[in-house]
Amino acid sequence: xxxxxxxxxxxxxxxxxxxxxxxxxxxxxxxxxxxxxxxxxxxxxxxxxxxxxxxxxxxxxxxxxxxxxxxxxxxxxxxxxxxxxxxxxxxxxxxxxxxxxxxxxxxxxxxxxxxxxxxxxxxxxxxxxxxxxxxxxxxxxxxxxxxxxxxxxxxxxxxxxxxxxxxxxxxxxxxxxxxxxxxxxxxxxxxxxxxxxxxxxxxxxxxxxxxx
Length: 212
Ligand SMILES: C[S@@+](CC[C@H](N)C(=O)[O-])C[C@H]1O[C@@H](n2cnc3c(N)ncnc32)[C@H](O)[C@@H]1O
What we know:
- By secondary structure, the protein is α/β, with parallel strands linked by helices.
- It has one domain (about 20-210): Rossmann fold, CATH 3.40.50.150.
- Helices cover about 30% and strands about 20% of the residues.
- It is built from 8 helices and 7 strands.
- A 7-stranded mixed beta sheet has the order 3-2-1-4-5-7-6, sandwiched between helices.
- About 40% of the residues are buried.
- The protein binds S-adenosylmethionine.
- S-adenosylmethionine binds near residues 71 and 100.
């Protein structure tokens, strides 16, 4: 079932939370088929569940402003962002998997859906200056070569405000961004939550610029 956005709701009327409270079977099937076709790129057997979506978006509010999402897949974090009050037109969704593009365009018609490798963020001028308040990343960084992780982070921070943050999911036991990469880019990482109520269990890291 394709779920529509609820932008017709009047201001002040709560957006139904049903979208983050369950995961449609069709999403699990299409996501798993995509994983079978390209396990390295998709990097997970099932879409993220509501517990990790809540962790990923816990610090984001309507005041965050423009948000970039990297690797939205079927959109579990995107729905959670809308539930947090982010305006759909403030969303830029960067997805490399062609399987997900049409679905994202249908589900989030006011968002900007960009079919592109997240490592090319700095090759295209997605924003003037750096107005972005948060980057949400569902990318499987652990399976990517270091130069690609550097390209993704430096591209993303090129759009982030000074007070902006990059939120990264991982299924590993520590931050998926190696210390030399963080050091080289002047960044710091902090774990802001873990959950076992996800397949697989997941943690979320907040990456920010180091204070001068
Ligand atoms: C682990 S899945 C996460 C999907 C979704 N965020 C979730 O949590 O269910 C990783 C997603 O990143 C996408 N992806 C992988 N490499 C990418 C890249 N270089 N640029 C943009 N998207 C990429 C995949 O197609 C997939 O949708």
